[in-house]
Amino acid sequence: MTSSSPNRSRRRGILIGAFAIYLVLLAWVVLWKLEVPWIGDAAGLDRRLKLVPFLASGDADANSPIEMTINLVLFVPFGLFLGALAPNWSWWRTGLAALGASLGLEIVQHAISTGSFDTADLIVNTAGALLGWGVYVVVRRAAGPRAPVIMSRLCITVTAFTLVAVAAFVVSPLHYGPQRDVVVERTGPTP
């Protein structure tokens, strides 16, 4: 065992812990917009899914640029972490992992009625993770053997910054909005 193995194991453990914190914060942001967790009254009711990305369809409005930008930025650390934790993964494997995580979050938010299922979110979230993975690739090529240390520090810094930002948001008077159910009124005869 080399002298750097304990350092590598310790760094990986810290990185896994930081990734877990990031995932918890990501779920809190996506599902409850940093509000107290709740389940909406429409949970379990038949509601429509937005299957046409980006454009208005059915009862759903077109996606706003600010919402898409926020979703993109929220998933960049996902790609950074996957690059640091699974350096041999290809872009498509990273993309599939991000798509799976995003799909899980979309299904849960729709099921508990804290949001609605939107295919645009799947696309933008996956793009954000791939952007983060691209940053990892650039760092790996530029830093060579120092890349794991640099990526670990970057990921831990991003997590620390996110924790501070979340804490500032929670104690501030600013809030995303009132807790409300996402219910789509249907027109026409009911079955």
UniProtKB/TrEMBL annotation:
Membrane-spanning residues: 12-31, 68-89, 151-171
The VanZ-like domain, residue ranges: 19-139
Keyword terms of this UniProt record: Membrane, Transmembrane, Transmembrane helix
InterPro entries, per the entry: Teicoplanin_resist-assoc, VanZ-like
UniProt keyword Transmembrane helix, yes or no: yes
PANTHER family to which the protein is assigned, alphabetical: INTEGRAL MEMBRANE PROTEIN, MEMBRANE PROTEIN-RELATED
Designated name of the protein: VanZ family protein
Species annotation: Microbacterium bovistercoris
